[in-house]
Each structure stands twice: as C-alpha cells, then as structure tokens.
Design brief:
It contains 8 helices and 12 strands. Helix 2 crosses helix 3. The longest helix is centred in the last third of the chain and has 28 residues. It is globular, with a radius of gyration of 24 Å. The model has no long low-confidence stretch (mean pLDDT 90).
C-alpha cells in the first residue's frame, strides 16, 4: 500500500478531528453509477469498515470515482444519423436541435458504456499539518479536495514546495553533488525551455558526461531519480511531486519480522511503516530544497 506517487500540501485550515471525519465520510459512501449516470463519486472504507484509517496521528482516506464514457465522435455520428432519418432532405438542423439530439443519444448509449473506476488516496498528517496525495495529477487532487471541502465546510491548503525553484536544485546536484542523505539514481528528464524539446534518460549511471553537456548548453532538469537513505527510490519532479516511489529492500527489512496473518493488521503495519518513512523523507526534502544552491564545480 506504499504510495507510488506523492504530492504534498500544507494545511491552512485546522486539521479535522479524525473521529468526526470518519462519521462524516461514512454518510457519503461511494455508490456505483446508475444506467444513465455519467459519474459517481464517494468515499470508500480505508480499512475494514473505517472510512478513516489513523496511525500515529496520520489518517488515510480513499475517494472512489466511477464514470461512464461514450466517445464524442460516436455520439455525433449517431445524432447525425437520427437527424437525417427524421428530417430527410428538409434542411440543415439548427444548433439547438443538434445539441438536443446529441444529449438524447448520450442518454441512450450510456447504459451500454462500460463503467471505469479509479481511486485517489490522501493522508492527513496532523503532526505536521500536511496532506499527502497518492497522485501527481492536479485534477485528482482538486477533486478530492473539493469533496473534503463539501464535507468539512472549510478546507484550504497550499503546495509545500510551491515557491521553490526545484529545477535549479536538481541541476546543481547533477553538476556538483547531491545533498547529504541522497544519492543520484539512473534516470532523468531534461527540458529545453527555448525550443520546447526534452531528453529522457533511463538506466544510465549519472552524472553522465552527455547529460552534463546538455546542462551546460542551457537545458533544465525537469525530473531526477534520487535514492534517500538507501531506503526509498523516487523521481523528484520540478513541480514538487514525487513519482515512481519504490521502497528498497533495506526499508522492507526494517519492518517487523513478526508474521501477521490478518490482512487488516498487515495493512495497518504497512501504513505505519510508510508514514514514518515518508515523514522523514519529506522533512529531509524540505531541508535540502530550502538550502542555498551551491555553485557548480564541474
């Protein structure tokens, strides 16, 4: 259950009481879409029957969305066919008639559309007044935040690294050396802000002379793989989000060797391990990204 992506925000409103939050979310559970319903959004239990799974002052919640989608081209084609069959050569239908027919076609075709489900997890860290999202997609973050705002009445947050020039830090680390506690991995993405191109490298020992040459030519680092404390491997993006998060074997070895047969107890143990590790990682990232950028010596 370790988050594979991570976007961190700082809460600007009081952290909700987790017991109250659980009761509130339970009144708006997820329900599958009806035959002619385009979308359905609701909360899923995070553990067992609990809509809020709390460990060490951090609460995980799960928002589920289901949508039925009919390709716009299919709707337009069917609407045109029905209009031609209805009007024949009587003339071109008006915009209003065309729109009304497309709406009617959509309602007719929706029951045949295969419903697609997706989940977005968030973790509210009361100890650090932060919110972690298991996604780097802005629309998913906004969707979950909107649901919380509707449930709680107030909900404001700002990106934790919103004002930081992360790209300059990543470039400096490649040209010089990574900060204490971090190692450079084997993947990066460089972008050319002048011409709009990009270069992606993977499974390459970094820093590589060719990558360094591109940096000296003016390209910027948009993504860089890092390894933190030999425990977590991840891609740090210039927008402050983390992607491709993967715990290393060393972090897994730090988990209790006790055999847990109960699935919910195992998920609880996994969340405790994740919360502890990500808290320390976020703290270290905050420290190194707030530090002055050292001039490159290469």
């Amino acid at each position: 259950m370790f988050f594979r992506q991570l976007t961190v925000y700082r809460l600007e409103t009081p952290c909700p009481d987790f017991t109250t939050l659980d009761a509130t979310l339970s009144t708006k559970p997820f329900m599958p879409t009806r035959a002619q319903q385009v979308e359905s959004i609701g909360w899923q239990p995070a553990l067992g029957t609990q809509f809020v799974h709390e460990t060490d002052g951090a609460a995980r919640i799960v928002l589920q969305r289901e949508e039925r989608s009919v390709p716009a081209a299919v709707v337009r084609e069917e609407a045109d066919n029905r209009l031609r069959a209805r009007d024949g050569a009587a003339g071109e239908p008006t915009r209003a008639e065309r729109t009304a027919m497309q709406d009617a076609v959509l309602l007719d075709l929706l029951p045949q559309a295969f419903p697609r489900q997706s989940q977005t997890q968030a973790l509210i860290d009361a100890k650090n007044t932060q919110v972690w999202f298991d996604t780097a997609t802005a629309t998913k973050v906004e969707r979950l935040s909107l649901q919380l705002r509707e449930a709680l009445g107030q909900w404001r947050m700002v990106p934790l690294f919103g004002s930081t020039d992360i790209s300059s830090h990543l470039s400096a680390w490649l040209l010089g050396a990574p900060p204490l506690g971090f190692e450079i991995g084997e993947a990066a993405k460089l972008i050319d802000l002048r011409e709009g191109g990009s270069i992606t490298v993977a499974k390459l020992a970094l820093p590589d002379p060719h990558v360094i040459a591109h940096l000296h030519e003016g390209l910027k680092v948009d993504q860089l793989e890092l390894i933190w404390q030999e425990r977590i491997r991840f891609m740090l993006k210039a927008d402050g989000s983390l992607a491709r998060i993967k715990p290393t074997e060393q972090l897994g070895a730090e988990e209790s060797s006790e055999i847990i047969d109960d699935a919910d107890q195992q998920r609880d143990a996994d969340q405790r391990l994740m919360v502890e590790a990500l808290r320390r990682l976020i703290l270290d990232l905050t420290r190194v990204l707030a530090a002055p950028i050292e001039p490159a010596t290469v």
